[in-house]
Design goal:
This protein is globular. Strands 1-3-2 form a 3-stranded antiparallel sheet. Strands 4-5 form a two-stranded antiparallel ribbon. Strands 6-7 form a two-stranded antiparallel sheet. The chain has helices at about 25-35, 40-50, 90-95, 100-115, and strands at about 25, 50, 60, 60-65, 70, 75, 80. It is α+β, with helices and mostly antiparallel strands. The termini are far apart. It has one domain. It is built from 4 helices and 7 strands, in the order E-H-H-E-E-E-E-E-E-H-H. The longest helix is centred in the last third of the chain and has 13 residues, at about 100-115.
């Protein structure tokens, strides 16, 4: 199966997707993170996630951020890279779900319009 071309670069983004309030994780994601940190599944569930909006849903915990109000606790706020990349949840592995990222398209447009390759719109 041929892979579609990718029209975005996560390396040029300040990790917008990591600022989503609801980064939903599955039981398999929690087990993967537990192995990564050498924790029990119960401890990983308690320390790394919290209850989500939907019944039975677990989401990743956040921490404060200087670009966005808050971001996933696993984002390095200086490098803007995932600190658990190999163990990241499935939702992160699949994002954005297509060959284009809407935020990256928006960011590229704004950086071009502002004539500033480092420009980040206010959150």
């Amino acid at each position: 199966m041929a892979r579609l071309p990718i029209f975005y670069s996560c390396e040029r983004c300040p990790a917008y997707c990591c600022s989503y309030d609801r980064i939903v994780v599955t039981d398999a994601d929690i087990r993967r993170l537990a192995r990564h940190f050498r924790l029990s599944v119960a401890v990983a569930r308690e320390q790394l996630t919290k209850r989500g909006e939907e019944k039975g849903e677990r989401v990743l915990r956040h921490h404060k951020d200087h670009v966005y109000k808050s971001v996933c606790r696993f984002l390095d706020r200086e490098t803007r890279r995932c600190t658990v990349y190999e163990a990241r949840p499935e939702i992160c592995r699949d994002y954005p779900g297509s060959s284009r990222c809407g935020y990256y398209d928006f960011l590229s447009f704004e950086r071009n319009a502002q004539e500033d390759p480092e420009f980040i719109p206010d959150a």
